[in-house]
Write a structure and sequence with these properties.
62% strand, two-stranded antiparallel ribbon, Porin, mainly beta, 217 residues, eight-stranded antiparallel β-barrel, elongated
Length: 217
């Protein structure tokens, strides 16, 4: 968690220094994003077990709505560099809860999940609007930490070991769209490499989304 925060602080001061040169090129946007059900690759998802990790729903965990803000700087050639952070309150994993003696059910444990996006983009003027194409890298699912306790026998000694794990992953982010006034409408996708995630087995995932931003500066 510390590394993304340090990157955010460095990027903020970098953009702020540019904004002092020509403030009109410095942009602050707020918006919302809706991620639809992910498209999974041909490999099978690893079936979670109580030994390896808690049970969870991949579709519920990475899809759904989020809110975001972005800081960016547009160069004279209409190239844009920026940073965006998104927040969503969503499913993390299931835990077993007792319904009545001898009967239990799975209860969803939810929490605030944060994503960090670093991007570059290009705007193209078309009549009275502008088209854009953006790409970047996203550090996603921050805030999905959980504890795992396993039973081990080491040289005849039985003991429990507790690990702190998470569902973090990284993704390539590509999106395109157009602007009208202070609004920006886009459609895009996250391309997730299975080897970067803790919950898949070399399974490439495409996570499409729709996005709406409003420029407040």
């Amino acid at each position: 968690m510390q590394k993304p925060i340090l990157i955010l602080i460095s990027l903020f001061f970098f953009l702020h220094s540019f904004a002092q040169i020509k403030k009109s090129n410095f942009s602050i946007k707020i918006g919302t994003e809706y991620r639809i059900t992910p498209i999974k690759g041909s490999e099978d998802i690893v079936i979670p077990t109580l030994v390896t990790m808690p049970n969870f729903s991949l579709d519920n965990q990475i899809s759904g709505a989020s809110i975001n803000y972005s800081l960016s700087y547009v160069l004279k050639s209409k190239f844009e560099i920026g940073f965006s952070q998104s927040f969503r309150y969503d499913h993390i994993y299931f835990e077993f809860s007792d319904f009545q003696p001898g009967i239990s059910f799975e209860k969803s444990v939810n929490g605030v999940i944060t994503d960090y996006h670093f991007f570059i983009g290009k705007y193209f003027t078309l009549f009275k609007t502008e088209l854009f194409l953006k790409t970047g890298i996203s550090l996603m699912n921050r805030g999905t930490n959980y504890s795992r306790t396993i039973f081990l026998t080491d040289q005849g000694v039985d003991r429990f070991v507790t690990d702190q794990l998470n569902f973090n992953f990284s993704a390539y982010n590509v999106n395109t769209g157009f602007t009208f006034g202070k609004y920006e409408v886009g459609i895009g996708a996250y391309f997730i490499n299975g080897s970067s995630a803790n919950f898949v087995n070399e399974n490439n995932i495409i996570l499409p989304y729709f996005k709406l931003n409003y420029s407040i500066k």
